[in-house]
Amino acid sequence: MRDVSIIGIGQTPVGEHWDKGLRLLAYEALAAAMRDAQVERVDALYVGNMLSGELTAQEHLGALIADFAGLRGIEALKIEAACGSGAAALRIGYMAVASGMYDFVACIGVEKMTDQQGSTTTTGLATAADAEYEALHGVSFVSINALLMRRYMHEHGYKKEDFANFAINAHRNAVNNPNAMFPHLITLQQFAEAKPIADPINLLDSSPIADGAACVILAPTSIAREFTDKPVRVRAVAIATDTLALHDRRDPLYLEGAAISTQKAYAAAGVGPADIDLFELHDAFTIMSALSLEAAGFARRGRGVALALDNEISLGGRIPITTMGGLKARGHPVGATGMYQIVEVALQLRGEAGANQVRDARIGMAQNIGGSGATVVTTILERI
Questions:
Q1: What ranges make up the beta strands (E) of the chain?
Q2: Same domain, yes or no, for 238 and 228?
Q3: Which residue, 27, 99, 158, 351, has most beta carbons within 10 Å?
Q4: What Cα–Cα distance (Å) separates residue 79 from each residue in 34, 52, 227, 355, 383?
């Protein structure tokens, strides 16, 4: 197996792109990444996406985007793993380069969500849950996370406001991200008084749906410096799964898929939690931030919220998270989210995160979650 590095990155602003279709968003991110990598062609293209069929009536994305980008003839496929689709595309691209099958691979995450009514998008998102035992009974993802949050508060003695700093920290970091959907500060009072959605979850616990695309170009590490003076080595990309339905899990408050994925990644990279300089976690809801920190080994069970209360998740804290705003403030174009996380870790490791730069960042980790934890992709990147 060959070492693999990221030689180019690209992204579009996250937001409501009513003037741009899905293929154009994907192309813009791909073109930016190819310019950054100084390559004119790639051998293969893997597109992470969840909802193109449901929301844009467009499947067959691989061939569509390859053709639109002037890459007709190459291998091109859509990869679907619910909200974990973006990082899942990286996993496929990584294997293609590591195996020696291809030298240059583009991995894209793209989603177009805001052209439909909210009820249509909610129905589409529910397809990542168990159709017969959750979605059929009207259980949405916000209600699933509300159940988790309520149980977590009961088990560990936290108050609703104790989760506030996950959102406050994300918005504080988004202020310096030109691609963020909501680059503005929020206060504890605003968090406490935000519109309720599914008790105890309110609007400021929740990430916004959005449109956007992000892309990386992969190549063998052995030739990476021929294309960039700031290659970022992919130390590990690991996938694990759990049950789709929350009620089927051994312990609903333990993200077993996340724990297994993380341990696989740590083992492959030869590192542990103490070696990670920043963590782009999947903060679709504030409760998921706490559960992810615990599953990844940064906090004991029931102590994920304490990291936020102690401000250990800030840019200068013990484990900086959501360094460019995360899902909460950058936005959550579901199939693209995992790729945005990877691009943002790469920016940190390249020393290009501007005012949000984590000092001396050498190893970063991203964790992309599909559904309520049924598919989890953990990626570890290293500055070389």
A1: 4-11, 44-48, 75-79, 105-111, 196-198, 201-202, 212-220, 232-241, 278-280, 363-370, 375-383
A2: no
A3: 27
A4: 20, 11, 27, 34, 27
Range of the domain at 165: 139-207+233-383
The answer to whether position 134 is within a domain reads: no
Report how far residue 230's alpha carbon sits from residue 314's, in angstroms, rounded to the nearest whole number: 25
3-state secondary structure of 76: strand
Mean pLDDT, residues 277-286: 98
Same domain (yes/no): 182, 80? no
Question: 305 and 160 in one domain?
Answer: yes
Alpha carbon distance 268, 263 (integer Å) = 9
Give dist(CA 281, CA 221) in Å, integer: 26
Same domain, 71 and 152: no
- How high is the pLDDT of residue 161? 97
pLDDT at residue 330, as a whole number: 98
Tell me if 126 is assigned to some domain.
no
First and final C-alpha spacing in the chain: 18
String of DSSP letters for 242-262: --SSGGGSS-TTS-HHHHHHH
Judge if 254 and 224 occupy the same domain. Answer: no
Give the span between the Cα atoms of 270 and 252, in whole angstroms.
Answer: 29
Which sequence positions are flagged as catalytic? 83, 332
Q: What is the pLDDT of residues 105-139, one digit of tens each?
A: 999 999 999 998 888 998 999 898 999 998 888 88
| Alpha-carbon dihedral sign for residues 149, 287, 155, 130 | positive
